[in-house]
Amino acid sequence: MDIFVIQGGRRLSGTVRVSGAKNAVLPLMAASLLADGPVEIAGTPRLRDISTLGKILEYMGASVETASDGGDGREVVRIDPAGIRKPEAPYDLVKTMRASVLVLGPLVARHGRARISLPGGCAIGARPIDQHLKGLERMGARTSLSEGYVEVETSRLSGAVICFDMKTVTGTENLMMAATLAKGTTVLSNAAREPEVCCLAGALRSMGADIEGEGSDEIVVRGVPALRGVRHEVIPDRIEASTLLLAGAITGGDVTVSGAVPSAMDAVLQKLAESGAEISTVPGGVRVRREGPIRSVNVETSPYPGFPTDIQAQFMAYMCLGDGESKVRETIFENRFMHVAELRRMGARIDVSGNTAEVKGVAALSGAPLMATDLRASASLVLAGLAASGTTEVLRIYHLDRGYESLENKLSSLGACISRVKE
Ligand code: EPU
After folding, report:
1. pLDDT exceeds cutoff 90 at 159
2. In which region does residue 268 sit, left (phi positive, over 0), alpha (psi from -120 to 50) or beta (all else)?
3. In what order do the strands lie in the sheet with 39-44?
4. DSSP secondary-structure letter at 297?
5. Which atom number of ligand 1 is nearest to the Cα of residue 239?
6. pTM
7. What is the Cα 201 distance to its own chain's centre?
């Protein structure tokens, strides 16, 4: 297993390019199941979650090819769904990635049947999929559970009015995809507003779908008989961009993330500015600079456009070095403080009570061997390691590889001393 070895204390500076958004690529890959022709997703990063979903699509009979796309390390994933014979996603693959559930809606809509292993809980919470299933039932599908698999069947889905009990990103994406080929109109209310939902809606529209309202909390989909193949460019990864800006801020550096879209990162940029970092929009990107102390600020996660849960762990690492007290409240997932125990081992002072962590800033963190527990928690440990004195080792970085493309190379290009070694 690979580990990261970090010599902390270097100030990062320079420009780094953001990759395409993992959480936008995954639904686009699932959407290919709806099409009558090949779908090309351009600007995809090289990530384990993307190859896992590729394997699931291949298992079903699709052909999946990845090729380089005009240099710069960019790739294009080309999926031809013509050979789909087995609308099933097996346990061995689903267990490594919950987002596999995204194939459910497209399979039922296009093939009238889906059988996918029920994703279990994961490191950050129980994460049920009841909203996905209730929505499909409202559209006329029968759902059942057998031998750990969810089975969904219907002759043809019918449009319905579906009000989500809570904002769910993949739930909104799944039902939006299902509705594109349903008979009649579907209204999704209390829908998620994330940029990744909008990216998917844009691709579906280019495939011939009739969708409006994405980006608001009511999405209306009028079903069409068929969808065609498409080439679609994926949006930049706002979570990776925010993580890289935090790497600049935590080291007192000067970092520009090119390709980052500031409007998609408002909540994070505002908190960075409140913390004393100087944020500026530069042509084609966002720049962060910090010279003074880190001011402690409170953050509370909430669905987009609120502060993303996917940046909570990284921001907490930053707050560990704040000049006062900061409250970090997690409202989306019930178990997303796994990084706290590891940060404490570096000298951080954090008390957790329910869904709130109280972080009392310390003057310095010290390097230590650390265990990564989930994707974003791993990134938080890397940030802490960059700012700490001495050597930090981050173990089990396979979690990080699920969602960050060559993070060590990007950070090294900014002057960090970080390397990947075999344990
Ligand atoms: N929920 C339910 N029932 C459902 C669906 C969701 O109770 O049927 C609950 C969840 O347990 C959670 C809340 O609703 O408490 C929100 O979950 P959501 O469904 O929005 O999460 P998700 O769609 O499974 C996506 C991202 C996550 C990100 C969350 C929240 C993808 C592939 N994953 O997950 O990304 O944290 O939205 O923004 O888009 C990551 O990239 O590290 C990651 C975990």
Report:
1. yes
2. alpha
3. 63-68, 75-80, 39-44, 230-233
4. -
5. 41
6. 0.97
7. 17
Contact 47, 22 (CB under 8 A): yes
CA–CA separation, 119 and 74 (whole Å): 30
Residues lining ligand 1, Cβ inside 6 A: 23, 26, 98-99, 125, 127-132, 166, 168-171, 196, 309-310, 332-333, 375-376, 403
**Lookup: tokens for 406:** 């060559």
Residue 131 CB neighbour total at 10 angstroms: 21
Cα separation of 283 and 407, whole Å?
23
Give 382-412 pLDDT, tens digit per residue: 999 999 999 999 999 999 999 999 999 999 9
Distances (CA, A) of 407 to 171, 213, 420: 29, 35, 10
User: Tokens for 422?
Assistant: 């075999």
Show the DSSP H helices in 13-160 as ranges.
22-31, 48-60, 91-94, 104-111, 130-138
Contact 103, 116 (CB under 8 A): yes
Distance (Å, rounded) from C-alpha 86 to C-alpha 37?
18
In degrees rounded to 5, what are phi and psi of residue 369? -75, 135
C-alpha Rg value of the chain to the nearest Å? 21
- Residues paired with residue 187 on neighbouring β-strands, in sequence order: 161, 220
Whether residue 120 is predicted with pLDDT greater than 70 in this model: the reply is no
